[in-house]
Amino acid sequence: MAKNRPSHVSRPVYPGGVAAMKKFVAANLKYPPAAIEAKVEGTVIIRYGLNYTGKVTQAKVKKGIGHGCDEEAMRVVKLMKFTVPQSSKKKVRIHQDVNIHFKLPKPKPTPKPKPAPKTSTSITYTQSGSLSGKVVRKKTTDNKPNSGYSYTIEW
Hints:
InterPro entries: TonB-dependent_transducer, TonB/TolA_C, TonB_C
Structural class: alpha+beta
CATH topology of the largest domain: TolA/TonB C-terminal domain
Protein name: Energy transducer TonB
Number of helices: 3
Number of domains: 2
GO molecular function: energy transducer activity
Keywords: Cell inner membrane, Cell membrane, Membrane, Protein transport, Transmembrane, Transmembrane helix, Transport
Strand order of the largest sheet: 2-1-3
Pfam families: TonB_C
């Protein structure tokens, strides 16, 4: 009589799921300088093997884009650690594929230059012997924008 054995092996999972794995890859992936200079973008497909403890034991490039991106993707995959469900105490090696996307970082926008400070209005005070106060306002003719007015106060 046959024993009741499961016909499938439980697959290892990354702690926190796919979203956590994407976050881990994004935090640890460094865009190679050679790829930035060559303006290389694309997807590297890595096939990796997991041992029964969930550690990545081997990794190879299934599809690469070169310029150092393949090596960087392999480095990040080898850092990952998976959780393996131990249902039947079998020590099974599992192979999986992962796609690692390389997209050039967007250039930072150059800050807008600050506008030139507005020129201040000059005020000239002139005092003469009369006590009657008189203010004369004249537009300056410097041919400069925002040159303003000059004021003369006579007494």
